[in-house]
Amino acid sequence: MTGRTWFHAAGILWPRLVEAASKRQTPTYGELSPLVQTNPLSMRYALDPIQVHCLDAGLPPLSSIVIGAVTAVPGPGFIGWPLDDIGTAHELVFAYDWSQVANPYEAFGVMDTPESLAHSLVENPENRE
Fold first, then answer.
1. Which among 15, 63, 112, 126 is least surrounded, fewest beta carbons within 10 Å?
2. What percent of the chain has pLDDT over 70?
3. Mean pLDDT value across the chain
4. What is the Cα gyration radius of the chain?
5. Quick check: 108 and 10 in contact, CB under 8 A?
6. How many Cβ atoms from other residues are within 10 Å of residue 77's Cβ?
7. Which residue would you say has higher pLDDT here, 77 or 109?
8. Alpha helices, DSSP H, located in the chain
9. Phi-psi category of 7—alpha, beta or left, where left has phi over 0 and alpha has psi -120 to 50?
10. Residue 2 pLDDT class (50, 70, 90 cuts)
């Protein structure tokens, strides 16, 4: 994912995860990695901003539904819920009305970081929604 930020990747993944949750699906790292042009092992970096946002906002662990093809559980970078009770996390994610939650990373361009977006908004306040 050279020359891009993982926040941009999280913005791409968010709607796909919301869609999967609404269909009670558990996509694999390998199925999602082409969406953000990375490999399955690097998906943890794209999912980390989503994990952090859900933890900070008190939301069900949306990134928990992304699983390993062999293990059928999230990988070692997932800390949002105990793996021995991942079924409960999935049920919470599936039952949640994600349509009420905006994609927190939608505004991130390919090279944006939280700092660069904040600076841009300070410099160009007319760009605020």
1. 126
2. 79
3. 87
4. 15
5. yes
6. 14
7. 77
8. 6-22, 29-32, 43-57, 86-95, 114-123
9. alpha
10. very low
